[in-house]
């Protein structure tokens, strides 16, 4: 399975935008890019996913590089509730499963 | 709508025993996956069921098994429990169809402690 590389941790200030990077240089043409986040003592929560084009939803935006070797999850205005571990995952096609890495621990300062 | 429901939330078992965990997916979701989360190994994929058939399997010993019923509910069984099986077991469900990819909805998990 293709691997992703994320920073171990990042810090942000409340109400400021956050850009969480993810590198996936060995991505294949059928791999979808998924982002999940996990708050303490909870199961992971779906954030967003995409294949080639940038995607937006009520939670975040996903910017995918033209060569698809990297992507960025954008939280437009961080809140204290956004403090979590964020996982960038490559899913092999529509029938693949999620392979979690260690993720990025995001801290949000008031 | 109701989310993914996992029961029980907490469980304490003794080494050598077996355990069955239950997962009720979101209505209409026919794919159910199971994951194990430990502090040392993180989140690891166990298996996925779709239409009562195991579609994908992770790298776990045969002591870990599962099944899916016609109503898409799924159970996971671990036999001959070991101390290392202590973990948070998470279930996730997803829509399937049309060649599209969908996100997964996770339950809150079952915390299994083996003593």
Indicate the topology.
The complex is a heterodimer of chains A (110) and B (115).
Chain A: E1 9-13, E2 18-23, E3 31-38, E4 45-50, E5 55-56, E6 61-64, E7 70-75, E8 84-92, E9 104-109
Parallel strand pairs in A: 1-9
Antiparallel strand pairs in A: 2-7, 3-4, 3-8, 5-6, 6-7, 8-9
Chain B: E1 5-7, E2 10-13, E3 19-24, E4 31-38, E5 42-50, E6 53-57, E7 64-68, E8 74-78, E9 87-94, E10 105-106, E11 110-114
Parallel strand pairs in B: 2-11
Antiparallel strand pairs in B: 1-3, 3-8, 4-5, 4-9, 5-6, 7-8, 9-10, 9-11
What's a concise summary of this model?
With about 110 residues, chain A is mostly beta strands.
Explain what you see:
The complex is a heterodimer of chains A (110) and B (115). Chain A has 110 residues and is mainly β. Helix content of chain A is 0%, strand content 47%. Chain A has strands at 9-13, 18-23, 31-38, 45-50, 55-56, 61-64, 70-75, 84-92, 104-109. Chain A has a 5-stranded mixed sheet with strand order 1-9-8-3-4, with no helix packed on it. Chain A has a 4-stranded antiparallel sheet with strand order 2-7-6-5, with no helix packed on it. In chain A, a hairpin with a 4-residue loop joins strand 5 and strand 6. The N and C termini of chain A lie far apart (38 Å). The mean pLDDT of chain A is 93. With 115 residues, chain B is an all-beta fold. Chain B is built from no helices and 11 strands. Chain B has strands at 5-7, 10-13, 19-24, 31-38, 42-50, 53-57, 64-68, 74-78, 87-94, 105-106, 110-114. In chain B, strand 5 and strand 6 (53-57) form a beta hairpin. The chains are: A mainly beta (110), B mainly beta (115).
